[in-house]
Design brief:
Blueprint lengths: L6 E3 L6 E3 L4 E6 L3 H4 L4 H4 L5 H4 L2 H13 L3 E7 L10 H5 L10 E2 L2 E2 L22 E4 L10 H8 L3 E7 L1 H14 L3 E5 L3 E2 L3 H16 L3 E3 L1 H8 L1
Parallel strand pairs: 3-4, 3-8, 4-7, 8-9, 8-10, 9-11
Antiparallel strand pairs: 1-2, 5-6
Helix pairs in contact: 4-9, 7-8
Bound molecules: dicarbonimidic diamide.
GO molecular function, one term: hydrolase activity
Keywords: Hydrolase
Protein name: Nicotinamidase-related amidase
């Protein structure tokens, strides 16, 4: 494959010209705490099956992406064990009986180094794939993501992961403001709430692609194949 030759991907609101050498797959927060039964997401009362639908499409896309030799990055939402980077307002939000930093079934909730904070085995990073630990919802806030992408010469992002309306949308908006072009495959992102899945995607592609483009992973895969 010519890494500098644009590949045309069918997308909304119009086709996306993917330049392999400049495009990275950014997988957001596919962590055990959000996706597995017994994790933080389920403790908050959410139905994790809504998120687990995105695992297989992400596996398929990741396999093809890696085989094509394209750049992959992963993110994890979480905090230092001493909670020094956890805003008090985030700690108390929701008024749940258990919150970030407390001990749950998979270790301390959303704390770096704990089992629940780690990425699910189905999508585990390979050595050499950067993993961005982020304290907020957006992957650019208080991280070195922008510097890493600039050093790699990346200007386009295929953004996948969870949840569509929270960390995926926040990251796409942050990326858009920094000049990145973002393509979101709708089957590779997921929300606990079907209405937010729908609206989260609508908001990205509305008004001529105000934050980016929306497609389906099969459309990317068929072009990379
Ligand atoms: C949330 C995320 N929903 N990764 N995190 O708290 O979207």
């Amino acid at each position: 494959m010519d890494m500098n030759a644009p590949l045309t991907i069918e997308a909304e609101p119009y086709t996306f010209e993917l330049i392999p050498s400049k495009c990275a797959l950014l997988i957001i927060d596919m962590q055990r705490d959000f996706l597995e039964p017994g994790g933080f997401g389920e403790m908050l009362g959410n139905d994790v099956t809504q998120l687990r639908r995105a695992i297989e499409p992400n596996q398929n896309l990741l396999e093809i992406w890696r085989a094509a030799g394209l750049q992959v990055l992963h993110t994890r939402e979480g905090h230092r064990p001493d909670l020094a980077d956890l805003p008090p307002a985030k700690k108390v939000r929701g008024k749940g009986s258990k919150t970030i930093g407390d001990t749950g079934p998979m270790g301390r909730i959303l704390i770096r180094g704990e089992a629940g904070h780690d990425i699910i085995p189905e999508l585990y990073p390979l050595p050499g794939e950067p993993v961005i630990d982020k304290p907020g919802k957006g992957a650019f806030f208080a991280t070195d993501l922008h510097a890493i992408l600039q050093n790699l010469g990346i200007t386009q992002l295929v953004v996948t992961g969870v949840t569509t309306e929270v960390c995926v949308n926040t990251t796409v908006r942050e990326a858009n403001d920094r000049g990145y072009e973002c393509l979101v495959p709708e089957d590779c992102v997921a929300s606990y709430f079907p209405v937010f899945q729908e609206m989260g995607l609508q908001m990205i592609k509305a008004q001529g692609g105000i934050f980016g483009w929306v497609t389906d992973s099969t459309k990317i895969i068929s072009v990379l194949n």
